[in-house]
Amino acid sequence: MAFDGITIANIVTELNQTITGGKINKIAQPENDELIITIKNQRKQYRLFLSASASLPLIYLTETNKPSPLTAPNFCMLLRKHIGSGKIIAIEQPGMERIIRFTIEHLNELGDLCTKYLIVEIMGKHSNIIFCNEEDQIIDSIKHVSAHMSSVREVLPGREYFIPDTMQKADPLTVTSEEFAAHLTGKPMPLAKAIYTSFTGISPVTAEEICSLAGMDSSVPAQEYSADILLHLYTQFEIYLSAIKEDTFSPGIYFDGKEPKEFSALPLSHFVNYTRVEYDSVSEVLETYYSTRSLITRIRQKSVDLRHVVQTALERNRKKYDLQLRQLKDTENREKFK
Description:
Elements lengths: L4 H14 L4 E6 L5 E8 L2 E8 L6 E5 L11 H10 L3 E6 L6 E9 L5 E9 L6 E5 L5 E4 L35 H9 L5 H8 L5 H10 L13 H20 L5 E5 L2 E6 L10 E4 L3 H55 L2
Antiparallel strand pairs: 1-2, 2-3, 3-4, 5-6, 6-7, 7-8, 8-9, 10-11, 10-12
């Protein structure tokens, strides 16, 4: 799925249009790795869902609520204490990282105006929600990561917050044509893979789309293309990503019949065998996509369980039938010899 830096950029744009300047009204933690933050802004109420689940990290606006435990977890209580009535003054995405940084102003116990940061990292099994002070020092996080768990970065109270640069990827929005070609030709791998492993926030699906728009074979290494062809690829790369700079996203879901196969914040023209349905909101895309996929998965699982029960019953009945046939045959043979 294309939950890449482009999708995050679309989410940031949507959140800036809806909840920036809003006041936090309620903070709940329905699951160990989930938060639901209610924000009031411009006489409207918004519900922001945050999940740091290792299998399904998410962030989107929703109208759906979830029941919370009677006793709030420690992380939830900490957030309520510091930013329970705070004001969201900025929402940013560092580079094209899969990270969203909320800047929140609040009054401390002495009535002084303070700033805190709530940082949501959508990074697969490394996803986290981290709460920091003005000096980027970690106050707490929804998941603690010790040195035994990660040699790259500890996520513990008192540690300095930083974004680990483990892949050393370039920013796709600022890269020059010369740097672009150098990154790709320096990697002896298929062109699409060279693109998504070289630039931050680019998913395999997006890399395939850029190759398709340029009319290039994504399975061929960049070294086999001429400088002019790579310049043509860079031009398509720039054009495709210009929508991010201009905030002209078009979120949609690609369906195979009624089953959602993929979602994206920008069109994917190489998905010719699927039907694209556009939505006004990327939040609606994410909620619809994952809820529909979850429903289909549950139905399939139940059908597998049902088929297993039916198959087991059939096997038992076949064995009983075979046994009865043998008993009947034995009885008939005995009757003949009487």
